[in-house]
Amino acid sequence: MWTTTERRTAISLSTPSTPRLRLRPAAPPGSARTALDGAWWPRSADPVAELPGLILALQDHGPIDDHRPITHVLLRKDDWDSRPRRLRVDGPNDARVVRLSWFDSLPSGLLIAIHADGRRVDLFTVPAATPRTEAEAAMDLAIHPHDHLGVPGLLAALVPPGRTARAGTPTASESAWESEGGRLRRDLAAR
C-alpha cells in the first residue's frame, strides 16, 4: 500500500535545465536494436530537479510527426537520492504527470524512458560526480556506432571520482575493460 507521500506528485520548482544528453542517430526501419540509445550526464542525483529537462528533450527526439510524450521512467533505486512515484513535467505547451518506477534489479546507470506509444529509450546515466573528461568520453562511447557496450562496460570504463590516472596510463578499470574487447575513446578517434 502506498503512503501519502508516495501518492503525491513531485513538482520541480526550477525551470527544467538543458540536459547533457547524447543520443544515437535514429536507426533505419527494420534494423536491429542497439544496446543503448544514448547517454545522459545529470548534474545531481535529485530526480525531481534532473528528470524534467531530460523527459522534455526525449519527447522532442525523433521524427517531427512522431513526438509522443514520455509516460513512464524506470530507474535504479541506488542511483538517486529520492524516489518519487510521480513527477509533474511542465513543458512549453502543457504539463503532464510521468510515472516513475524504482528497481533494485536494473543495472546501475541504466534509465529506461517509455513513450505513450510503447517505444522505449535506454540511456546510460553517467554518475553526476564523474569528472567532465571521463563523463564525455563515456557518453561518446555509449553512442559510437562501432561499439555496442552495455551499461556495466561503460561504468567500468569510468575513472572513479577522486582518482586520476597519469596521462597515457590506463586505469585498472580501463585495462580490465580493454582486455574484454572494449576500446577507449582515443582508439575510436583513429578509426
Q: N- to C-terminal separation? A: 54 Å
Overall geometry = globular
Our count of domains comes out at 2
Q: Main sheet? A: 8 strands, mixed
* Class by alpha and beta content: alpha/beta
Percentage of residues in strands: 15-25%
Total number of beta strands: 8
Biggest sheet, spatial arrangement of strands: 1-5-6-4-7-8-3-2
The SSE order reads HEEEHEEEEEHHHH
Structural commentary:
26% of the residues lie in helices and 22% in strands. It has 6 helices and 8 strands; from the N terminus they run αβββαβββββαααα. It has an 8-stranded mixed sheet with strand order 1-5-6-4-7-8-3-2. A hairpin with a 4-residue loop joins strand 7 and strand 8 (120-125). The longest helix is centred in the N-terminal third of the chain and has 13 residues, at 47-59. The radius of gyration is 17 Å and the shape is globular.
Write a compact overview of the structure shown:
The chain is 26% helix and 22% strand.
Fill in the keyword field for this structure.
single chain; 191 residues; alpha/beta; 2 domains; globular; disordered N terminus; disordered C terminus
Strands, helices and their partners?
Layout: H1 4-7, E1 9-11, E2 21-23, E3 38-40, H2 47-59, E4 70-76, E5 86-90, E6 95-103, E7 110-115, E8 120-125, H3 132-143, H4 151-157, H5 172-179, H6 185-189
Parallel strand pairs: 1-5, 3-8, 4-6
Antiparallel strand pairs: 2-3, 4-7, 5-6, 7-8
Helix pairs in contact: 3-4
